[in-house]
Amino acid sequence: MNRGFMEKHYRRIKKWSKLFYPQHKLKYYPPKFVLRDPVLERVYFALSGGQQVAAIVISISNLRELSQQLESRQLSDYKSELKAAFKEIFDESNYKDDLLVVHDYYSEGLTVFIKINDDKQSVVHIESLLRTLTPKLERWMYTKYPYFQHSFEIGYMFVERDVGTIQDALYAAQQQAVAMAEKRIQSRYIETLLEMRDIIQKREIKLLAQPIIDLTTKQIRAWEFLTRGPENTSLENPLQLFSLARQSNLIYDLELLVLEKAFQLIERVGCKDDVFLNFTPITLGNKRFIPALSNLLERYEEILPNKMIFEVTERDSIEGLTFFQDNIKQLRKMGFRIAVDDTGAGYSSLHTISELLPDIIKIDRSVIQDIDTNRVKESMLKGLILIAKETGSLVVAEGIEKKEEADVLMRNQVDLAQGYFYAKPGTLEKGRVALL
């Protein structure tokens, strides 16, 4: 055994031995990590036992958007839930013995460190593991946050045993895995952008209509127009369509197309009832919106602004939108009315209502569902009705699916209602709806 070989291993042993020094001995050798670090500790022992270690980065492509939607909840709380869910999924799989640690390690997503015996085909093993676990994590995410359209991208890299300190080796592997995940995210983003641009350019959307019923007269008082994407595609689902439009920064273009399609439909069928259209604050707060709306009104002369209601979704924040309040004032001067949608579904209802003083308050389905068997929900309804009286707003209850719910609304003198109990969305044809 030559001298150079011995010196190399002596230096390595001396470097690692610092990790085991008593704390008072470390003042001259301050390490970046101590052994109590769960990542460093578990990776070190796996490598020392002759196993390979891989860093797998799970990057959530629209994690920042989710953190904004959660509002009062911190991103760290969400990530803790995600880590716990992943650990549980791992523990229930055939790979539970491979897991070393799940960590938010230099990353906005998660980094999973796994160990692999040298006698296994490492890459094949990881790919098999990911094919098994990723769909389960996707299902957890969809169940936990069904309103949030997300996507995972994954990159992985092996920790090199003989490169620098263990901290350096871990960091290098993790950053390389992040880079792989981000390349996949970027590739998906470009595909999404091109797909959304194509839909908007080809105007491949259609509008359905759902009647809104006057609870006193049982007559149709208004219609809500609902958007659908290209038929027989995943983007026919409006949640998918608008989620991708937001992530590709094309939400304004899509919603302006929806507005023009709505004007065309109203003129074509001769609709004389009120029409509700849902818009994000992003669009209503865009400085181009009022000029664009004015141009459409010139082209579609039969459109009466006093028959149109712009719904502002309560789930979106109106904070920080420079032109939003001025645009709302302009819309009202032009004769349009404003509704706050999804009231009761999130955290900012009262703030949005107090800022906008809407003409109409739409109560979310989450409040209405099973209200006939839930006194707390009926109390919430009464509170929202009281607020509506203070602001001079009409009340529309959404998502009514059974007679018992409708009876509670009647008892509490709710103005208007919509839901499958009355009619499902369909195509509007000459003042009537052809149900799907």
Automatic annotation (TrEMBL):
SUPFAM superfamilies named among the record's database cross-references: EAL domain-like
Pfam short name (any one): EAL
Location of the EAL domain: 189-436
GO molecular function: cyclic-guanylate-specific phosphodiesterase activity
Name the record gives this protein: Diguanylate cyclase
Organism: Bacillus weihaiensis
